[in-house]
Structures are given as C-alpha cells and as structure tokens.
Model the fold of this input.
Amino acid sequence: MDVSSQAMSGGYGRPPASYRLPPATCLGAVELQVSHLARSLEYYQQLLGLSVLAHDDHTASLAAVETTEPVVVLREVAGTRPVTPGSRLGLYHFAILLPDRSAMGRFITHLSKIGTRTGSSDHLVSEALYLQDPDGLGIEVYVDRPRDAWRRDNQELLMASNPLDLDDLVRVAQGAPWTGMPSDPVIGHVHLHVGDLAAADAFYAEGLGFDRMVWRYPGALFLGAGGYHHHLGTNTWASGAVAPRELDAKLMVWTLVLPTAVDVTELRAHLVSRGLSLTDEPTGILVADPWGTPVRMRARG
Done:
C-alpha cells in the first residue's frame, strides 16, 4: 500500500471512459424542501450564521455575510413532514466548506456556547462536523487539509473516519469570536444515499463525467472533478431506505456549476447520447439520478 504518496493533481483517480467534467467544475446552491420556513430560517441564521438574501412567504435564499451568491435555498411546502435520518434515499448531507481551520475553530466554540451537539470526524483530506436541521436533513461543515497533504494508495485517495482533534481547531482560532458564516464559504460537496453503487457509478461517473476518487471505502463511492477529493459522495448505508415522498422534507435539487455555456452544451449532448431524459431550463439543464434526486447543471455566472 502506497500510503506515503502525495496526491498531486492529475496523479490519482479513475476518469470516466468518455465525457469528463472540466477541472474547474464546482457546486452551487442546494435547494431544500422544509416543513416550517420560519423555524428553518431561525436555525440556519442562528446556528450556521447565514444571512437572508431574499425572502417571501414560502421561500428564502441564504448566503454568507456580505456575499450575494446563495448557499442554501429553503422552500416551505404545505404539509411537508420531517424525516428520520437514514430513512430516505437522496440527501445524506450537504457540506459547507469553510475557508480555513481558524473559521472551523470559531464555529466549534460557537456551537459549544449555544449548547449544540455535533458528530465529528477526521477524514484525512478534511476535518468535519455533522449536524441535522429541524427537518432531519443532514449538514456537514468542514475545512480541507492542503492538497499536498492528501495521500493516496496508487490511484485511489485515502480517506478515513478518525477522531477529530476539536481542541486543536479551537486553539487555532485563538479565542476569536464567531461572527457569522465567513464571506467565502461554498457548497463543497453533496453526499447522497443511493440504492446501488454500480448504478451510481454508471450515472455519475460515466454519465455526468465525474472522476472516481475513492472506491474502496466500505459501502461508498466518492467522485470529484479537477482532482478534488469529492464533490459528490454516494453510499448504501441507509438499509431499507425508500425514495422520498412528495411531502417529505428533502433535497429538491443540487447544482453543478461548469465553467462556460459551451461546457453545459457538451455535457447535454453526452447525456442525450446515453438516452437520459433531460429538462431544459433558461440557464441550463436538469436531470434526475436513478433514485429521483435532481441535479441542475449550469454555467458559472
């Protein structure tokens, strides 16, 4: 096992056979169906420190402090029911990437002060906290380790779920207060419960064009573009889970942002060639995975 090899860009991962996402691909906002908009707004503002960009009776767009690009869109649908984590296919969690370890330390202190308990893990490539919103929807808040600190076993990145050194992260923050979500967070990745990893590989790698980054993690497949450890995680850990029902709290759509409109056109042609059913939108295209989770693909800007 080549555990000492650094994971330099381009030196690892298994690309798809034909279409491959551009290296600069990233993620945009996630849209969530929630049961009570006011309750969700309180959670996302007070606990995560997001600010409201736009708000009407049933929808709110949330962003970081002093930014105009939404991170989360909340949509209240009458009659929606909270879900028990792991009971539905689709969203396992969406993940907000913080800019540095100091921000992570400030966030940890903030959660401690307001009495919020979290899960946590050291994934080798990143350090992560895990939360659930009032509707049972999973959230990860994490910070990446430098890419030159990542390790690989031949072509596969090494990831794990080790204990997280919370005290060290708090020390790095040097007592600075949490003043809300920093101005440059992004949706770093989305992680989905799926019914079958082979079908997930066929759809997301050979279909959408992601590279396979980690494929021997028990019950999971991690995929990314441009050498990133993963923009998308898929797993079969939710034994007995069913597809979300119309009035379940759920991930309504997540967003894949390609560099240019030409890139979107090329991806559209590839998906059509594979016989997938698409919905054309004014700014891009929409397609659902085999378990009904939609992904929107649009150009940057």
The first strand starts at residue 5 and ends at 6. The chain has a mean pLDDT of 95. The chain has one domain: 5-299. The helical segments are 37-46, 101-113, 166-173, 197-207, 261-273.
